[in-house]
Specification:
By secondary structure, the chain is an alpha/beta fold. The chain is about 45% helix and about 15% strand. α8 links the parallel β4 and β5.
Length: about 300
């Protein structure tokens, strides 16, 4: 772990290379202090030797940079109920340098999450077979959403051959718009759902992974497996708070072309939102109710 003196030197070099407005002495001290605090926390957590602190890991709920506040305690308490970037202060008409760097880091993480693929080793570790939609690459996936709603020929054949037929519940995982979200959350959520459904004596089908998948591909999968309920765990479009938000979309007897209102969704699944294990238990309960009431989406009266 680099010491505070080395850290200050590195920060000065980075700030000097970036095309930023002049940074006053107070702001430099602010950045140094935040970086040093993060470095200490990393050391306490047993961070790998030589690893620099990650500026994107700052908890925005505890960050308060407003100078001379009238009622800091009340505003700080309010921040605990919102993940928004409140109370980050201003330097004249612009953001302070530390929040600006955090914005840049969050934006980079969001881009990386959209344009990267889920690691094949992760899929293998999860013991999932992989199928693909009609999208041939990431560019096609982003520009042709319609092709992401249908499996390619090989995918159709694989689902027919490898998946259990007529399950009560078919669960699968898809990359969606955030590979990071899937790798961060899907394992815990899937396990929690499976344990919950097992406790309700509800049988599940064969889980698998869909590459370049949109939510709508679940309708074709429902028809191929003839499942009563289909649940997809899929990465959501990342924002500047987190690039690791995942959702679960669930339908009862879905069909190709069905209205979006017939889907039930559990969203905001990530470490700063709905905890994955808790989300899985909640999803299992929703699936149980769907099977009992034979409905989903706006037709489901909870």
């Amino acid at each position: 772990m680099v010491d505070e003196k080395q850290l200050r030197s590195i920060i000065e070099q980075v700030l000097g290379e970036m095309e930023l407005p002049d940074i006053n002495r107070e702001e430099r001290h602010e950045i140094h202090a935040a970086a040093a605090d993060t470095a200490v926390s990393y050391k306490e957590e047993g961070a790998e030797e030589g690893v620099l602190p990650d500026i994107s890991q700052v908890n925005v709920r505890t960050q308060y940079l407003v100078e001379n506040p009238r009622n800091k305690e009340a505003f700080y308490e309010m921040k605990q109920y919102s993940p928004a970037r409140l109370g980050i202060g201003k330097a004249g008409a612009r953001y302070k340098t530390l929040p600006y760097l955090q914005f840049r880091a969050a934006h980079s993480a969001a881009q990386d999450s959209v344009f990267s693929d889920v690691d094949p080793e992760w899929i293998k570790k999860m013991d999932l077979f992989c199928v693909q939609t009609r999208c041939e690459n990431k560019d096609m996936y982003l520009t042709r959403p319609d092709l992401g709603r249908r499996l390619n020929e090989q995918g159709v054949l694989a689902v027919k051959e490898k998946c259990r037929k007529n399950p009560q519940v078919q669960i699968y995982i898809s990359d969606g718009l955030s590979s990071a979200a899937v790798m961060a959350n899907a394992a815990d959520v899937l396990l929690s759902i499976q344990q919950g459904l097992k406790s309700f004596n509800i049988e599940t089908g064969t889980p698998f992974f869909v590459k370049y998948g949109r939510v709508g591909v679940m309708d074709e999968i429902t028809q191929l497996t003839e499942a009563l309920v289909t649940c997809v765990l899929i990465g959501e479009r990342p924002g500047l708070l987190t690039a690791e938000s995942m959702s679960a979309y669930i339908t009862y007897k879905g069909t190709i072309g069905m209205p979006e209102a017939h889907r039930t969704v559990v969203s905001n699944i990530h470490r700063f939102g709905t905890i994955p294990a808790e989300a899985g238990a909640h999803i299992a309960e929703i699936i149980k109710i769907m099977l009992e009431k034979k409905a989903s989406g706006t037709q489901l009266k909870m």
